[in-house]
């Protein structure tokens, strides 16, 4: 028996069934019984590491063992109400259940009021710190499906599997548009567009929260607000942006996520215009809670209250930082190790620097969240309640999501799909590894151990072999930065019909993904260049979290398939598209830059038109069939602010096979009080069309859809002239009068 199994057995023996006897818990009654210290404990969030054996901060690794003294100090002495983990380890579902059960038991036996513990995890593309869960594509890939219903299905799976592992709360989705592709967290976003992000955020939140109590989890919108446009491109650097633009671009996904039922929000740990969000009463209490009406729990990010003093220098010490943050409206503090937070906050309240009413507001929100998650009744249901965990059924949804995300950027002379009889050379460092399919936040924080955790995982190479047979595949390993292996790959191209070249990025997360140059690594470019000279069709498959610059090789490649970070089913999905089992339908959720200094978004200003230069535009993606658009109609062509307007268009599959098309409606505001973007996405629908089929697609617009945030920071639809565009067709219309609207 391995040590791990022995430890599991010990845990099982120690863990009796947990019950919390609150029945129909009344939050107000509970609150009235709590001491100040108990209340502050409910506002405190500590890592699993802080109660485990091993050296802080970056333990435990497997096998996990609790440290009884630390556990008692955190849960009994300090009454800490929330624990979360950071990713230096992945456990099986059963192991997670034992860990969370033990924590609940400690809470039940070691605290006066027995308020159940809340456990949270970063489940960014599935329960991705579990060894046996279903991994879906990362958000950037899910966005490329342009299929909110599929995204909802994917997040329902995550919710189910998190609950099965005993975990009721996930720190996902990242709601904000990724506006700077250099940022190491770009792949955690749904791309650059506010409307697409809003739709996908709402779909994800619905998927997390819509099932019955024991199959749903608490959803977290993050990182409020302005995190994803760092001024230096580096993680944790601040943003500089006029408030009206910040509101215009970043608020819509939060508003949509809150409406869809998100119960928690994690804040941006950086500053915006020099004002750290964690200390900003204006943004937290004012905009998030009062204006957007957010009733849930506002959570600080990792160590980010302390950041106010040692990172941002807006507080003179940790105590003053806590005063600023709690008064700004933060309800739950991700400490993450240090319990002096509790002592400081207690003394701040006793001195009247933080009002008891503020503490009560925070605790009320936390308790209501716990109640809503069913924790007071039965925090964990039996394992047998979850037969679909890690099932083929779930894997099929993930495979479909991965396949629908794949974006065919280029396909000269119909290079793709390849015939199943073709002999192919498979090479490139991403060909035979699970790491580049999954990226960061996979098994571990940085995601570099995916092959060790998932030795049976199906790589791109495995999937191609499975589809066309071993004897049709030549594989030459080309590790990253091993230019000496390039010759072998180039020589092997002689005897094949086509080359499948798997390029991209090694996994990273947060600051470890900071880069000086967005250009694809030089040895990969060299490999592509040399293969491109062999006279054989070269198909590039890109597994990457952000759009690496490939302009120097792009023209020499025959086909380019962008796979983003498609997850554990990505190998299958890529092979499905390469050999024509699936007709690609993914569309770019961002503008693919042509050069490292050409970082545009599609919704740039008119004044930038002359320098606008991109490799592939936002919304781009080819299919193996063709679509044509006709009869764009806007009716009526004068919109009165209280009325609605209909935009319709006919789309036809004119090619030789069935396919899915994403119909994208853009609106241009021809003139406005603030220089308008050239266009803005205002609606989209993904439609499946068989060969020769025509469908009419209809969008309904109101004045709100034409609104933008003006210089006074009001969301306003201004009277004037507009153009609706779909698939290259344009129709003018007029908004007859201005109107202020609300989120
Ligand atoms: C990240 C958050 C994450 C948290 C907990 C922070 O460093 O910014 O996105 O949820 O860690 O792991």
Residues in helices, as a percent range: 25-40%
Number of helices: 22
Strand order of the largest sheet: 11-16-15-14-12-13
Strand count, sense and barrel status of the largest sheet are:
6 strands, mixed
Total beta-strand segments = 29
Residue stretches low in confidence (pLDDT < 50, at least 5 long) are: 1-15
Average pLDDT score: 95
Detailed description of the structure:
The longest helix is centred in the N-terminal third of the chain and has 18 residues, at 93-110. The strands form eight sheets. The protein has a six-stranded mixed beta sheet, with helices on both faces. Strands 4-3-2-1-10 form a five-stranded parallel beta sheet. Strand 27 and strand 28 (729-735) form a beta hairpin. The protein contains 22 helices and 29 strands. By secondary structure, the chain is of the alpha/beta class. The model is unreliable at 1-15 (pLDDT under 50). Helix 4 (68-77) packs across helix 5, helix 7 runs antiparallel to helix 15 (392-405) and helix 12 packs across helix 13 (340-350).
């Amino acid at each position: 028996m391995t040590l791990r199994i022995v430890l599991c057995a010990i845990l099982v023996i120690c863990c009796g069934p947990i019950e919390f006897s609150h029945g129909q818990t009344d939050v107000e009654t509970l609150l009235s019984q709590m001491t100040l210290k108990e209340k502050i404990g409910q506002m405190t969030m500590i890592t699993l590491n802080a109660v485990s054996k091993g050296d802080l901060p970056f333990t435990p690794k497997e096998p996990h063992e609790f440290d009884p003294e630390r556990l008692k100090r955190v849960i009994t002495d300090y009454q800490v109400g929330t624990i979360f983990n950071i990713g230096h380890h992945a456990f099986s579902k059963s192991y997670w259940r034992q860990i969370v059960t033990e924590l609940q038991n400690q809470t039940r036996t070691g605290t006066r009021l027995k308020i159940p513990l809340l456990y949270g995890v970063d489940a960014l593309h599935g329960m991705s710190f579990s060894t046996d869960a279903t991994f879906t594509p990362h958000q950037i890939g899910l966005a490329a499906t342009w299929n909110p219903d599929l995204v909802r299905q994917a997040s329902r799976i995550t919710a189910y599997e998190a609950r099965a592992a005993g975990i009721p709360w996930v720190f996902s989705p990242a709601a904000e548009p990724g506006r700077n592709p250099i940022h190491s967290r770009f792949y955690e976003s749904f791309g650059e567009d506010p409307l697409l992000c809003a739709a996908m955020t709402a779909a994800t939140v619905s998927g997390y929260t819509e099932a019955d109590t024991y199959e749903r989890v608490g959803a977290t919108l993050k990182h409020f607000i302005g995190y994803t446009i760092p001024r230096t491109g580096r993680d944790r650097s601040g943003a500089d942006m006029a408030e009206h633009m910040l509101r215009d671009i970043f608020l819509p996904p939060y508003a949509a996520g809150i409406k869809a039922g998100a119960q928690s929000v994690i804040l941006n740990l950086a500053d915006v215009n020099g004002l750290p969000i964690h200390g900003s009463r204006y943004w937290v209490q004012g905009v998030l809670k009062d204006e957007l009406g957010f009733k849930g729990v506002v959570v600080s990010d990792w160590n980010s209250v302390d950041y106010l003093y040692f990172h941002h220098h807006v507080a003179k010490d940790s105590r003053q930082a806590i005063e600023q943050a709690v008064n700004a409206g933060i309800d739950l503090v991700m400490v993450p190790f240090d319990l002096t937070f509790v002592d400081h906050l207690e003394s701040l309240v006793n001195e009247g620097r933080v009002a008891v009413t503020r503490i009560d507001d925070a605790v009320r929100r936390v308790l209501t969240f716990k109640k809503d998650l069913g924790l007071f009744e039965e925090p964990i249901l039996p394992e047998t309640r979850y037969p679909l965990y890690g099932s083929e059924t779930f894997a099929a949804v993930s495979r479909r999501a991965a396949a629908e995300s794949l974006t065919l950027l280029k396909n000269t002379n119909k290079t793709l799909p390849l015939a199943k009889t073709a002999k192919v050379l498979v090479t490139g460092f991403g060909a035979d590894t699970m790491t580049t399919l999954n990226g960061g936040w996979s098994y571990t924080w940085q995601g570099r151990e995916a092959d060790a955790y998932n030795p049976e995982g199906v790589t791109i190479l495995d999937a191609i072999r499975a589809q066309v047979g071993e004897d049709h595949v030549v594989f030459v390993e080309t590790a990253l930065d091993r230019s000496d292996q390039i010759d072998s790959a180039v020589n092997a191209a002689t005897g094949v019909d086509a080359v499948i070249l798997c390029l991209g990025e090694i996994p990273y997360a947060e600051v470890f993904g900071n880069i000086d140059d967005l250009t694809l690594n030089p040895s990969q470019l060299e490999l592509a260049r040399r293969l491109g000279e062999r006279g054989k069709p070269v198909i590039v498959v890109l597994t990457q979290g952000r759009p690496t610059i490939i302009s120097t090789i792009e023209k020499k490649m025959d086909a380019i398939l962008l796979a983003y970070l498609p997850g554990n089913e990505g190998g299958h999905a890529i092979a499905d598209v390469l050999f024509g089992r699936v007709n690609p339908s993914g569309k770019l959720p961002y503008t693919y830059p042509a050069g490292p200094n050409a970082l545009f978004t599609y919704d740039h200003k008119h004044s930038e038109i002359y320098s606008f230069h991109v490799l592939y535009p936002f919304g781009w993606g080819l299919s193996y069939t063709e679509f044509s658009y006709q009869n764009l109609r806007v009716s009526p062509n004068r919109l009165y602010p209280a009325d609605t307007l209909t935009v319709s268009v006919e789309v036809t599959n004119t090619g030789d096979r069935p396919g899915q098309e994403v119909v994208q409606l853009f609106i241009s505001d021809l003139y406005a009080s603030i220089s308008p973007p050239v266009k803005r996405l205002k609606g989209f629908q993904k439609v499946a069309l068989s060969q020769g089929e025509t469908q009419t697609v209809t969008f309904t617009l109101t004045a709100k859809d034409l609104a933008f945030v003006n210089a006074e920071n009001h969301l306003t639809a201004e009277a004037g002239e507009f153009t609706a565009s779909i698939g290259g067709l344009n129709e003018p219309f007029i908004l007859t009068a201005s109107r202020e609207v609300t989120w």
